[in-house]
Write a structure and sequence with these properties.
By secondary structure, the chain is an alpha/beta fold. Helix content is about 30%, strand content about 20%. It has twelve helices and 18 strands. The chain has helices spanning about 1-15, 125-130, 180-190, 190-195, 225-230, 270-285, 330-350, 375-400, 410-430, 435-445, 455-465, 475-480; strands spanning about 20-25, 50, 55-60, 65, 70, 75-80, 85-90, 100-105, 120, 145-150, 165-170, 170-175, 175-180, 205, 260-265, 290-300, 315-325, 355-360. The strands form six sheets. The chain has a five-stranded mixed β-sheet with strand order 9-1-10-12-13. Strands 16-17-15-18 form a four-stranded antiparallel β-sheet, with helices on both faces. Strand 12 and strand 13 (about 175-180) form a beta hairpin. It is elongated. Residues about 10-15 and about 365-480 have low confidence and may be disordered. Bound molecules: 2-acetamido-2-deoxy-beta-D-glucopyranose.
């Protein structure tokens, strides 16, 4: 009986769990790390070593060092690896020259919420091999179902800077010991080492709970996005330049990007891990995409344009694609990868548990058949509205011609429309614009004053009219005349 229950439990977890992500803290306070010293070198025998007098610090020492002198930290500890230690130097090391005062850097600057200070990978092996995954800023710092790792042979210090919110984690590993519950971890926090590693109020809740939804789980950092952005100095002033025409704002990202965003509506058949692996195996591993970065995660559905969000499906899968060179205009690699993914969805979407895919790109300068507007429903609605708008005068004109309707008002109205369309033809011929609708609306929303409300819609409909739609009464030749 018990075995059966256990078996069911195991079965349940093995089918319902999404792969964990491992997040590893990058900075350390190791004695041997050159970036911890103001002279960017490890102290040698003639040096006078100075630790910040008013700071607390834990320092991991890997080997023996002979030094001329040392000012100890106010409160702190040295964690000595086997065989490591300090000695006062007797002999003169020719390589050390005269020696100098060498200062240890202030470790209090490294913020937990700084996305630049974490590596993310799908396994510890990947972490060690430098095979990191790319994600939006909110997910670069630990998420609620992540395993957090501080490298075994390192000392470190994390500044939490009061945020008021509790940090939820699956597990946390410190100095090679993995904590999966609050009780043991709070014991560690109270130890001398723990207090030096995590000074200040750290509201960490360790759950030992993995993401139990095979369609994926939200990271859970939406509430601290602003904290993350300012910790990472990813605010408007410091964001990289976006030289593309219509920069995009991915959900959970601090800065606008040049690239592409695909959003997916999923069904209960969707399996997050499988789809991510499919993207990596089928597309990302191709040599032509070696410089392209792709982030995929489940995020809160955003209100886009006119579309109303039904209450029952409040999340969607977001895929963000950018070039390795952040800030460069949308490269053709990004475009073609995005199109490859959309093509794949057309044929396999249903069997993958994906009911809809929407692609938005930031490039405004595509030409020819590369232009494939897949902005989904909203474009659909607009074209639909347009069809109605144009077909009413169209039908009236037809009826008028047939002698059924003789209303000069309608003729006038129609003639005016005709005139506008002609104008549109001219402008379309002079300068080509990529009518990716969502991007237009987004930028319209972001820059109030440029377009607003109805105007933006009208603008877009006109653009669509020049591009997408041929009026059966006025064929393309009118534009050529
Ligand atoms: C030294 O510290 C820097 C910054 O804290 C870190 O990026 C780097 O990986 C460390 N170097 C080594 C060899 O661990």
């Amino acid at each position: 009986m018990e075995t059966a229950a256990l078996f069911l439990l195991v079965l349940f977890f093995s089918i319902g769990i999404t792969e964990a992500v491992y997040k590893q803290w990058i900075p350390d306070t190791n004695f041997e790390n050159v970036s911890n010293w103001d002279e960017r070198r490890v102290p040698c025998s003639q040096d006078k070593v100075i630790f910040p007098g008013n700071k607390k610090v834990s320092v991991y020492v890997q080997t023996t060092h002979s030094l001329a002198d040392m000012n100890m930290p106010w409160d702190g500890e040295f964690i000595l690896a086997p065989g490591a230690g300090f000695s006062a130097s007797a002999e003169v090391d020719p390589e050390c020259d005269k020696g100098s005062e060498i200062h240890f850097h202030d470790p209090g600057q490294d913020l937990w919420f700084d996305p630049r200070l974490w590596h993310a990978a799908l396994s510890t092996g990947d972490l060690n091999n430098g095979k990191f995954i790319f994600s939006v800023d909110a997910e670069r710092v630990p998420c609620q179902f992540d395993d957090v790792i501080f490298s075994p042979d390192t000392s470190f210090q994390v500044n939490f800077k009061a945020t008021g919110s509790t940090i939820r984690l699956k597990s946390i590993s410190v100095l090679g010991k993995r904590f999966t519950g609050d009780e043991e971890f709070s014991q560690h926090l109270q130890s001398n080492t723990g207090r030096l590693q995590f000074p200040g109020p750290a509201a960490i809740h360790i759950t030992d709970v993995a993401c139990g939804d095979k369609t994926g789980c939200e990271c859970g950092n939406t509430g601290v996005l602003q904290v993350i952005c300012s910790a990472g100095q990813l605010v408007e002033k410091t964001c990289p330049k976006t030289p593309c025409k219509t920069p995009l704002s991915p959900v959970g990202h601090c800065c606008k990007i040049c690239g592409a965003i695909i959003t997916l509506d999923y069904t209960s058949d969707f399996i997050f891990d499988d789809y991510r692996n499919r993207l990596v195996d089928t597309f990302l591993s191709l040599p032509q995409y070696s410089l392209v970065k792709l982030a995929i995660s489940k995020v809160q559905k955003q209100q886009r344009g006119l579309a109303k969000i039904p209450h029952d499906s409040s999340t969607e899968i977001q895929i963000v694609i950018i070039d390795e060179k952040n800030g460069s205009p949308t490269g053709s690699d990004v475009e073609s990868l995005a199109n490859d993914i959309m093509d794949d969805l057309k044929t396999h979407g249903t069997s993958l548990g994906i009911s809809k895919g929407t692609l938005v790109t930031s490039s405004g300068s595509l030409t020819g058949d590369q232009v494939r507007n897949r902005a989904g429903t909203i474009a659909g609605i607009v074209i639909g509205v347009l069809l109605i708008c144009v077909s009413v005068p169209g039908i009236l004109y037809f009826l008028h011609r047939a002698g059924i309707v003789r209303l000069s008002y309608f003729t006038q109205l129609f003639m005016r429309n005709h005139h506008e369309l002609e104008e549109e033809c001219e402008t379309e011929q002079k300068g080509f614009e990529n009518p990716i609708f969502e991007a237009d609306v987004e930028s319209a929303q972001d820059t109030p004053g440029l377009y607003s409300g109805e105007e933006a819609l009208k603008e877009t409909i006109q653009k669509q009219s020049g591009m997408q739609f041929s009026n059966p009464l006025y064929d393309g030749s009118q534009c050529d005349s």
